[in-house]
Amino acid sequence: MSRNITAHTETKPHISQEPAVYQLSLYPGARAIDAPSHQSLLASAQADGVELHASCRNGTCRACLRRLHSGQVTYPIEWPGLSAQEKAEGYILPCVARPASDLVLAAQG
Q1: What is the pLDDT of residue 2?
Q2: How far is CA 67 from CA 37, 86, 97, in A?
Q3: 75 phi, psi to nearest 5 deg
Q4: Which element (helix H / strand E) includes 99?
Q5: Distance of alpha carbon 67 from alpha carbon 86, whole angstroms
Q6: Range 21-106 has CATH code 3.40.50.300
Q7: Reading across the β-sheet that carries 103-106, which strands appear in turn?
Q8: Rounded distance, CA 63 to CA 65, Å?
Q9: 13-27: pLDDT as tens digits
Q10: Per-domain residue ranges for the chain?
Q11: Which is more confident, 41 or 54?
Q12: Cis amide bond preceding 99, omega within 30
C-alpha cells in the first residue's frame, strides 16, 4: 500500500540572532554602559572597566547583591540566591542577572 505524504512548510519571519543591547546605569552618578542581553550585568560592567564587588559569579555567595531601581532582568538559573522578600524589594544578583530592558542599578549594595 502506497501512502502519499505531503510535507507542509511554513515561512517564518526572519528573527535576528544578535542579542539585544540595553543601557545599564549605576545610581548615583555613573555613566551608562552597554549591557548585551546574553551576558551578566557583572560581565558587562567589567568589560567596560566598571568594578562591581563579586566573588562566586554563580549566584550563591550574594557578594554582588544590589538593588534594581528600574528595569527588568532575567536569570539563566531557576532561582538565584535571593529570598522571595529580597526579590520583591527589588534586589538582584548582577553576577547572574541578564538585562531584559534598560536598567538603573544601585552603585552600592
Answers
A1: 44
A2: 19, 9, 12
A3: -125, 140
A4: strand 98-99
A5: 9
A6: no
A7: 32-36, 21-27, 103-106, 66-70, 91-92
A8: 6
A9: 445 568 899 999 998
A10: 21-106
A11: 41
A12: no
**Which DSSP string do the residues of 41-77 spell out, in sequence order?**
HHHHHHHTT-----SSSSSSS-TT-EEEEE--EE-SS
In this predicted structure, what is the pLDDT of residue 61? 86
Higher pLDDT among residues 54 and 10, named by residue: 54
Residue with cell 540566591: 81
Residue 63, burial from CB neighbour count under 10 angstroms (0-12, 13-18, 19+): middle
What are the residues facing 73 on neighbouring strands? 99
| pLDDT surpasses 60 at 76 | yes
Q: Which pLDDT does position 10 carry in this prediction?
A: 41
Residue 107, SS3?
A: coil
